[in-house]
Amino acid sequence: MNKIALGVCYEGTSWMGWQTQPHRRTVQDTLEQALLAFLGHQTPTICAGRTDTGVHAAMQVVHLETPLHRPEQAWVRGLNTMLPSSIGIRWAHAVDAGFHARFSAQSRTYVYRLLESPVRSPLWAGRTGWSFRPLDLAAMQEAASALVGRHDFSSFRSSQCQAATPVRELTRLDLERHGRFILITLQANAFLHHMVRNMVGALVYVGQGRQPPGWMAALLAERDRRRAAPTFAADGLTLTGVEYDPAFGLPEINVTDEVKYCY
Prior knowledge:
Layout: E1 2-10, H1 27-39, E2 46-47, E3 56-66, H2 72-82, E4 87-95, E5 107-116, E6 129-131, H3 137-144, E7 149-152, E8 167-178, E9 181-188, H4 195-207, H5 215-222, E10 237-243, H6 256-261
Parallel strand pairs: 3-10, 5-6
Antiparallel strand pairs: 1-3, 1-4, 2-3, 5-9, 5-10, 7-8, 8-9
Helix pairs in contact: 1-2, 3-4
């Protein structure tokens, strides 16, 4: 069997998340249908991180196994002709048997784009979160510093989360302003269900002045999801990268500018 890794991107607004479901309106179902047409046999796929309904991916990583041989460019061109415009294959790469899209990943990176505007923008519908109140970026940055490191993130964990432990190591949490937009970049070894959107919701509370920056550290210590802010909208969230050991030789594509400025 040959093991192939794919770099997949998708605009998530029209999809019910990554993971296969009975109604088959998911990215995984659609990709596997294209693989069936391309290879002539059913091919289960495994991804690096299961994104929710409405969440986008600039760089999702998937692996699959097949007895067939195809040139790497044939994978890209062939699958892209069979996929809808909202899903695309960036690259394909043969990997050894020890590679696993999920378990070999060393970290995942997400970017949340947040629009600060007194009125919503139809031009950015489905592409960005929205705060109609002004946001204090300095206060948000101060609050964010409490979250970096290895912690029990129970206060930011969905009640439906199936992870064996709430402990994660958040290695990066940066906030920067670009005009009316605030970009929040988060990197961790792994994320809990709704963890990013729950942290964004708490940061927005601080930015709007509804809580002081010190509330974030107290919230983290309480380990109680009921004390936190509501889960923020999926619209502005994009999976931008999955990091692996360079020995696997996966292509490196910088999607930073694409995520910042895409419309």
